[in-house]
C-alpha cells in the first residue's frame, strides 16, 4: 500500500525532495473525469465529462457557479470541491458586500490556492483531493486558471485536468494559437474535440455525459437564450442535456461524422453506454491512469 | 435625614434621566412608501427625497428595490439602516439561489424579512418595510412590517412620513371603507381594481402627500410586478400613462420567463 | 443631527433651542463630569478637534472639492494649517469635516488598503478600486462603527473620476452611515449656507434634471470660491484659508491654500461691533 516511508505525513520531505501526500492528492485529481477549459479574447468556456456512479444514479455534476462572473469545473473529490467552492462563494460575496466590486478572478483563485498551500505545511492535515479549472471575467477580460491541490494557481490559454487529460492537452497544444480570435461556436467545437480525445475507444460524447459552461457575451448561434437569463446577461451559465444537443450535432457535422452520432448513443442503445461508464465512475475501480501527465512541477 | 432624602432624589435624577450627549445611532430621513396588491399584479411605490430635518440631503435616493423577478421591497425610515437591510436581504437571496438553483418565493422572502428584523429586536433596524409582488399562485400580494418584524399580508399599505395622510385615503379607495354601494348595485369587492385605477390612486396619493408634507417630493418611482403571462397593454403603449410619466420594463434578474417588472417614473414638486 | 459647529454631530432633540452662542467644549457643561459613579456605562464620545464644513461639486471635466485649513478646538482656532483634502490613489479624493483624529485614523486605514490593493495588482494587473468602490468601503466602515455605537465622528465627501465608465463620482457619508449622492454636496454648516448657492448655480446651467451642460472648470472654481467666502462670513468656525481639489481623468490635483477677498468695512457701522458709540 505505502509507496515508501516518507508518505505518512504531509510535512516531511522525502530525500528526493517530494511531499508524497501532495503527490497522492494530485493522483486523486487524475481519477476524476476530465474537464477542459479554453479562453478567447471575449469568452471563457469549460467542458466536462460527467460520470454516473451506476445505472440507477444520476450523472455527477462537475460545474459550479461561484458568482455571476466566476465558475469552476472540478476533477477529484466532489466533497472537497464543495468546501472549496463554498469558500470561493464567500470570498466573492465579501468583495461584493465590502467594495461593491465583483471579485477579481485572479484573487479568488489565489484565495483557494493559499488555503491549499497551508494544508501542505501543517501537521495533521491533508491536502485537498480536488483540482479546479476556474473561468471568470473581470475588468481585465476573460480568464482561465487551474487550481491544484499542491497550492498552485496558474493562468492558461487552454488547459485540461482529470482522467486522460493528456490526450486533450495534446489537442489543445496543437490548436491553442487560434483560440484567441475564435468565436464562441468555434471555441466550443475545439473544446468538444479535446474532450472527445479523453474518451476511451468505445465511448462517445452524448447529451447525457457532456456539459458546457460559458462566460462572455451571449450567442444566438450556440445558446438557447430564451431559457437562460444568465446567458442573456453574459454571466456564467451551464448547458447540459437537451441544451447541448445542437452543439454536439454541429460539432459532429464539422468533423464530417453522422449528425446523430454513433449508434450506441441513440436512445435504445443508451443503457449500454452508461453501463460501460459505470465501471469507470466508481471510486473503487478507477480506470488505468493511461498517459496522464505528471502534474507536479 | 432630609438632606439624605434630597441627595438620593438628586441621584435618581442623574441615573434615570437620559444622557443628553450620548451618541444617537438613529435618524429619520423622511419620505414615504406605499404598495397596493391587485388580482394579478402588485404595485410598490416610493418618493425619492431623502431629508434630515429641514434639509434635503438629496432629491434622488432609492427607497424601492427589485429583489427577484416576483418581489419588490420598499424601505422607509433611517436610510442607512434601510440600505444595509436591503443589502442583507439580497445577500440571503443569493445564498438561497446557490443552494436551490431558483429564486426564493415571495412568501418565503416575507418570512425571511420577519426573521432578519426580529434578529435585531434589541438594536432594531429603524425601518418600515413593505414587500410587494406575485405569490406562487399568481396573485398579487403586499406584506407590511414594523421595525422589529411584526408582519401581515394585506391588500394595501402606506408607511413613512405621510402614512397618516395616505392610509385613510387608501382605506377609503381600496377597502371601500365608508362607502355604500347604490341600492341594487354590485357590492364592492376589495382587491379587484384594474391597474390603471390603481396607478392613478398611487399618483394622486403622492402628489397629495407632496403638497401637505415637507418630507415628501422630488420624484416618484412606481414598480409594477405582473403575473406570468398577464397582458401588459394596460401599462405599455401610446397614451396608456398620464402626461409626464414614463415606463420601462426592467431586465429580469432570473431566467426571465416568468413575472415581469416595470418601473414607472414621474417627477414630484421640489418645494 | 445638530449641524452647529460647536455641537457638531450631536443628536438634535425635538424642539431643541438653537443656541448660537455655545462654544463647546469650553462653555458647554460636560454631563460626564458630574455623573455619579453608579451611572450606567456609556460609550459617549464627542468630537474634540474639529474641521468645519466641506463642499463638493460636479462639473464638466470631473469633480471639485473645497475645505478650509482650520482645525478648531471648540471655539479656539487651534490648528490653522491643516489639510482636509486627502487624495486616494489616482482618481479619488476625500474632503473631511468633523473630528480630526478620526480623520487621521481614516487616512491611515485607507492608505493601507490602497497599498494592499496596489501590491495585489502587481501580480494580477487588476485596476485599482474605483471611486464608487472606495466610497462603498467607507460607507460600510462608517455604518459598522455606528452599529457598534462607537462612531467615526466625521461627515465626508468622496469625489472621483471613474476611468472605466468615464464619469465623475460624488458621494456623502457620515458618522451614522448615512449615504447619498447629488451633483452638489456640502456637509455641516455648508449644507445650510453653501448648498443652496451650489444647487442654484448648478441647476441654472445644467437644468433641474442635470442633463444640460455642466459648469466649466473656471465657473466651478469661481462658485466654490464664492461659497467659501460666504461660509467665512457666516461660519464662526471657519478660516479664510482654504484649498480646492480637482479630480479629472488626468488625476487628482490639490491647490495651494488661498483666501477670498473680504470686506469688513460695513462692520464699523454696526452697533456693538465696531468702535463703541452712544
TrEMBL record, chain A:
Keyword set includes Cytoplasm: yes
Basic and acidic residues biased stretches: 254-266
Cellular compartments annotated: Cytoplasm; Nucleus
Low complexity biased stretches: 269-288
Residues annotated as domain Proteasome alpha-type subunits: 6-28
Segments for region (Disordered): 250-297
Matches recorded under InterPro entries: Ntn_hydrolases_N (IPR029055), Proteasome_alpha (IPR050115), Proteasome_alpha-type (IPR023332), Proteasome_alpha1 (IPR035144), Proteasome_asu_N (IPR000426), Proteasome_sua/b (IPR001353)
Keywords associated with the record: Cytoplasm, Nucleus, Proteasome
SUPFAM superfamilies: N-terminal nucleophile aminohydrolases (Ntn hydrolases)
SMART domains the UniProt entry points to: Proteasome_A_N
GO BP, sorted A to Z: ubiquitin-dependent protein catabolic process
One GO CC term on file: proteasome core complex, alpha-subunit complex
Subunit structure: The 26S proteasome consists of a 20S proteasome core and two 19S regulatory subunits.
Family that this chain belongs to: Belongs to the peptidase T1A family.
Protein name, per record: Proteasome subunit alpha type
Source organism (scientific name): Naematelia encephala
TrEMBL record, chain B:
GO biological process, alphabetically ordered: proteolysis involved in protein catabolic process
Gene3D superfamilies for the chain: Glutamine Phosphoribosylpyrophosphate, subunit 1, domain 1
PROSITE patterns according to UniProt: PROTEASOME_BETA_1 (PS00854), PROTEASOME_BETA_2 (PS51476)
Keyword annotations from UniProtKB, A to Z: Cytoplasm, Hydrolase, Nucleus, Proteasome
Domain of life: Eukaryota
CC terms in the record's Gene Ontology section: cytoplasm; nucleus; proteasome core complex, beta-subunit complex
Subcellular location: Cytoplasm; Nucleus
Keyword Cytoplasm applies: yes
Pfam families tied to this protein: Proteasome
Entry keyword Lipid biosynthesis: no
CDD domains: proteasome_beta_type_1
GO molecular function, one term: hydrolase activity
InterPro entries: Ntn_hydrolases_N (IPR029055), Proteasome_bsu_CS (IPR016050), Proteasome_sua/b (IPR001353), Proteasome_suB-type (IPR023333)
Stated family: Belongs to the peptidase T1B family.
Subunit structure: Component of the proteasome complex. The 26S proteasome consists of a 20S proteasome core and two 19S regulatory subunits. The 20S proteasome core is composed of 28 subunits that are arranged in four stacked rings, resulting in a barrel-shaped structure. The two end rings are each formed by seven alpha subunits, and the two central rings are each formed by seven beta subunits. The catalytic chamber with the active sites is on the inside of the barrel.
Function (record text): Component of the proteasome, a multicatalytic proteinase complex which is characterized by its ability to cleave peptides with Arg, Phe, Tyr, Leu, and Glu adjacent to the leaving group at neutral or slightly basic pH. The proteasome has an ATP-dependent proteolytic activity.
Record's protein name: Proteasome subunit beta
From TrEMBL, chain C:
Residue span of region Disordered: 25-45
Protein name: Proteasome subunit beta
GO process annotations (BP): proteolysis involved in protein catabolic process
CDD domains attached to this UniProt entry: proteasome_beta_type_4
Function of the molecule: Non-catalytic component of the proteasome.
Keywords: Cytoplasm, Nucleus, Proteasome
PROSITE patterns on file: PROTEASOME_BETA_1 (PS00854), PROTEASOME_BETA_2 (PS51476)
Extent of the signal sequence: none
Similarity-based family: Belongs to the peptidase T1B family.
Pfam families linked to this entry: Proteasome
